[in-house]
Amino acid sequence: MGKKPKPITTPLSVIHSILNYDPGEIVFIEDLGIEMKGTFRWKIPMDNGKKKIGSLAGCRTGNNKYWKVYIFGQEILAHRLAWYMHQGQDPGVDFLVDHKEGKTFDNSIEFLRLATGAENSQNRKTGSNNTTGFKGVYSTEQKEKPFGAHIWFDGLYKKLGTFKTIEQAALAYKKASIKYHGEFRRGDDLALSNAV
User: Fold this and answer.
1) Which residues contact 57 (CB under 8 A, 6 or more apart)?
2) Distance between CA 54 and CA 51 in Å, rounded?
3) Which of 86-90, 151-155, 187-191 has the lowest mean pLDDT?
4) H helix runs in the chain, sequence order
5) The pLDDT of residue 196 is above 50
6) CB-based burial label for 39 (10 Å; 0-12, 13-18, 19+)
7) I want to staple 191 with a disulfide (CB 3.0 to 4.6 A). Which of 7, 29, 164, 170 is the partner?
8) How far apart are CA 134 and CA 100, in angstroms?
9) What is the pLDDT of residue 131?
10) pLDDT, tens only, 28-58
11) How far apart are CA 52 and CA 33, in angstroms?
12) Residues of 11-26 as b/e, b for ≥16 C-beta within 10 angstroms?
C-alpha cells in the first residue's frame, strides 16, 4: 500500500451544512469526458462566492483517476468523502475506500466498500504489461506448457502451475482468485469472465 490516507479534519456536521451528497445523481462533464455518479454540490457560496449554491463541488485529481473536493483547504477524495457523509464516520487511516466495480468516478455508496491495502490491490485491472490478455496468466518458455498462472494475495506471490493452453491457465487463476480474493476479486477480468 502507498501513503496512508489522512483523516478528514472537518467535523461531519459542518460538511453536511455546506455540501449535499447525492449518491444517485449522474453527471457528464463534457470538457473532461467524464461520467460521474455520486455527486457533491455546494449548499452555500464558497471561495468568496466563486462557488455558487448548487454548483458541482470538486475536480479531477492530478493523475486523472479520481474526483476530489477541497474543504477548508483539505483535499478529500470523493469516495472517502461519500463514505464519511453516508456512513457518518471517517474510514480512518488504516482503510481505503474501494470502488467495487473499479470505476473510480462512481462514488455512489452502493459501489463503495472499506478495504485493506491488500484487499484493494486484488481489485486492480489487468496490468498494462500483461501480454496474454488474462489477469494472472503469463507466457513461459516451455514448449509443452507455454502458459503459466500466478496470483498475489496477502502480500504473497503464489505460482499456480504451467499449462498447455491459455484457457487452462486462465481457469487456474479464476479458481485461485475466487479462493484467495473472494469478494475483492475483479469481476470483469478476462480470466474470470471467459474461462470456463
Assistant:
1) 19, 39, 40, 41, 42, 46, 51, 69
2) 9
3) 187-191
4) 12-18, 78-87, 117-122, 166-180, 190-194
5) no
6) buried
7) 170
8) 19
9) 67
10) 999 888 899 999 999 999 988 889 999 999 9
11) 23
12) eeeebeebbebebeee
Identify which of 90, 87, 85, 89 has the alpha carbon closest to the alpha carbon of residue 17. 85
3-state SS, residue 193: helix
Here the cell at position 29 is 462533464
Q: How far is CA 141 from CA 69, 138, 160, 166, 173, in A?
A: 49, 10, 16, 14, 19
CA triple 81-85-87, angle to 5 deg: 110
Q: Can you tell me the distance from the alpha carbon of 136 to that of 194, in angstroms, rounded to the nearest whole number? A: 13
**pLDDT over 50 (residue 1):** no
Q: Regarding predicted confidence, which is higher, 118 or 88? A: 88
36's enclosing H/E stretch is strand 34-42
Average pLDDT over residues 89-116: 87
Please, are residues 51 and 45 in contact by the beta-carbon 8 Å criterion? Answer: yes
Please give the helix or strand (H or E) that residue 60 lies within, else none.
Answer: strand 59-60
CB within 8 A of 146, min separation 6: which ones?
Answer: 139, 140, 162, 164
